[in-house]
Amino acid sequence: MQRLRCRSQFERLLATPAAARTPHFALHCGAGDADTLCVGAVTPKRWARRAVTRNAIRRQIYATGAAQSALPAGMYLVRLRAMFAPAQFPSASSPALRRAVRAELLALWQRAATRLGSAAP
Over 90: is that where the pLDDT of 28 sits? Predict the structure, then answer.
């Protein structure tokens, strides 16, 4: 797995409609330049105020993305689109928040794998 690095890659993927959604995340996908899986993460300050929370979510996105072998090669961008309730997760990097984020990301990747199947993105 490689990471998306260029601004143009992020902009191109954000211009596509979301291929899969969960309550807090959206997954955008597109054809890649090589035969590898490239993953990017967008965690806006609007939805995760603390840097420690944004970085923890970003690490979970890359960790779950690296484990995806069912997806065809291409570029995938996971975007945080809603805030996790601060009343439910008061700590910025609590184990409960990590578990909730990981479970939702795994569901997102599963939906994408089901939708895309073996077809190219």
Answer: yes
